[in-house]
């Protein structure tokens, strides 16, 4: 796992994006399943996993200073239940029943506490996708990294990680079942390629797992390329404005412009 982190808006931190390629033996899989596999094909599922912590303010006690949530969501806030069957969160042993199993979306759980610790997040997939689990690790943070950042009951401390789960050589059934799903990145296949017909899940059922309208969605970090370009453009504009301001100040103070050295007589 890469641990280098860059500061993000909203008091959160965004680690360098990772790519988790599902490993396994194609031969072993074919023995367990009658589904044929698509060679040299990859299905990618962008996910975000993280924690969001709120200070309880006047309601805080020595043992319960924060209310926090740990979760796995689609990077575009679309339902992940077409790929993920369940998620298991392994909390600190001091919690009652530290192994928490979430069988349906949204894949999240909330708790209260006072300490920071590492959470193991085990993701289990549907059998036609992958028959083993993927375990990720995430450190719960209750306090912002900024040294002089005051505690706030309104602004949470957010730490999110972007990841892409890659399924190489997927089964035909899995490919056909998720090929039109908005949370899944699919490769292009030849128009002549025929896939088995798979019943499409009811749209209302799929929407149950969306986190677009989540009560805390305003705090989710946007990992889209468009959003990153907007942020870069805004940062560049701020830098340019600062340069203009400094140049004007230097001219007012009589300091020679660094690009226009004073003449020496």
Report what the structure shows.
The protein is α+β, with helices and mostly antiparallel strands. Helix content is 18%, strand content 29%. The chain has a five-stranded mixed β-sheet with strand order 3-11-4-5-8, with no helix packed on it. A four-stranded antiparallel β-sheet has the order 7-6-9-10, with no helix packed on it. A two-stranded antiparallel sheet has the order 1-2.
Strand content: 25-35%
Q: What integer value in Å does the Rg equal? A: 24 Å
**Number of DSSP strands?**
11
Shape: flat
Assembly state: single chain
> What order do the helices and strands follow?
EEEHEEEEEEEEHHH
Q: Roughly how much helix do the residues carry, as a percent range?
A: 10-25%
The largest pleated sheet is described as: 5 strands, mixed
Number of helices: 4
Give the strand order of the largest sheet, numbering strands 1, 2, ... along the chain: 3-11-4-5-8
Distance between the termini: 61 Å
Structural class: alpha+beta
Low-confidence stretches: 1-16, 29-33
How would you state the average pLDDT, rounded? 78
